[in-house]
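Narrative of activities, Objective 1.

The group set out to show that a structural description can be obtained from nothing but a protein's sequence at a throughput compatible with the screening campaign. Below is one input-output pair from the validation batch, recorded exactly as produced.
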Amino acid sequence: MTRTKPNIWAPGDWNAFFGFGTNILVNLLVLTGLLRFVLKMPDDLVFRRILPATGLMLCLSTLYYAWLAYRLAKRTGRDDVCALPSGISVPHMFVVTFVIMLPIATKTGDPVEGWEAGLTWVFVQSFVLMAGGFIAPIIRKITPRAALLGTLAGVSVAFISMRPALEMFMTPVIGVTCFAIILASWFGGVRYFRGIPAGLIAIAVGCIIAWGSNLFGLGYGEMKIENLAKAFANFGFSVPIPAVNHVFSGFQFLGVILVTAIPFGIYDLVEAMDNVESASVAGDSFPTTRVLTADGLVSLVGCLMGNPFINAVYIGHPGWKAMGGRIGYSAATGIMVIVLSWFGIISLMMALIPVVAISPILLYIGMLIGAQAFQETPKTHAPAIVLALVPHLAAWGKLQIDNAFAAAGTNAAAVGFDKLADKGVLYRGLEVLGGGAILAGLILGAVAVFIIDRRFTKAALFALAGAVLAFFGFIHGEKIGFGQSPVVALSYLGVAVVLLACSKFSVPLPSAAKIPEAHAELPEPAN
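Output recorded for this entry:
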């Protein structure tokens, strides 16, 4: 019996293409803004060197994951396989900008040296990813699903959902209206006129409101005719040019780079593993090693061509699959990115589309992934998912405080930790709890799951792993090194001792006395 070839394009790919494509577009617009307005890089470097290299990397990534989905569909004979989404790692985009490129560009007075340091940062991370791809399947096998999905939900709630939600309610006429259009279609099943994708309708409505408000004197400030005219100056065909010499020039800053490149490489390792698990839950099982090595390889190609941003498998596979995405949406997005980045169209898009019209799509993805953690795990594991969320909330809170202090020209240490604590701002707590949040959430979630299941020995082993990670600063620390968080490490050791004692000396509950659900009623306290 011969199997028919999988369909490259399905009707739902239109929805996924406009949804995922606009997600990628938002990230391209944001990173272009960071390069131009934060790092003060010249437009020639941004539009002629960096963006074409970024476009090449993204195209290679999306085409590869479309091919991987095609192979899975062909092997299984299924017609509902959805390609993994991938693109610029958003957390890393800000880290490499503000922690690596900006300080170096400021210190040297040369934005090109900041760019070179960013290239070296990605170079190092690429090899961390490729090496990690061979141990990730083992980690995925021994880690409970609630821990993997719970820490992923923490990322989606804190770092995917919050900013878009805030942007929407800062400009609610556009943001909330576009959000309603998306929710009605992607959650409510509403089909719009002639099947036009909800993402496209939301963007069109947002543009109409934004530009219309200017015509009636209401003034949505970002939309100006003069900005459109200036954007055409950056039009022109530009292909990536090898930047190997710039990559190795950045090695002069290697000491600064390693402090963040190694831990964030591990972050990518765990995040990609989580996202592969998320796709597996949605019915599509992809090989973890291939995913991670592909991320590392395309990131390496990108940096050697001049792109200072890392590639990553994205959160959101179940969302794109739920709206009908299959194989074609991923490949189409890669082709779209090449057109936008090689012809200078990103400059025009920055002047034409209000970002707040795209924000609801990111909030939708955050909602879906956050919900998946609870929907696809046993109800009894719900407390573990909440615990896995907490480090991400701490990291997000600390980031907001740091940014506020930076805007005021100061920092938490200068203000004083005791003064902050007197006002109810437990900054040190946020700093310790939120350090290495994705790994910390995974460890805490796994410990909680095994405690709930009364598998105390396994819980103790994860607590021991937490002690090692904390001691070397991978979690609950500011940087990697020897003895970075010894007190936290000692605390995890204490947890391991307690759990090993429970394993050895606790009396098993009779089956009739076991609590079947996490929401079972507790006995009333004695008076």
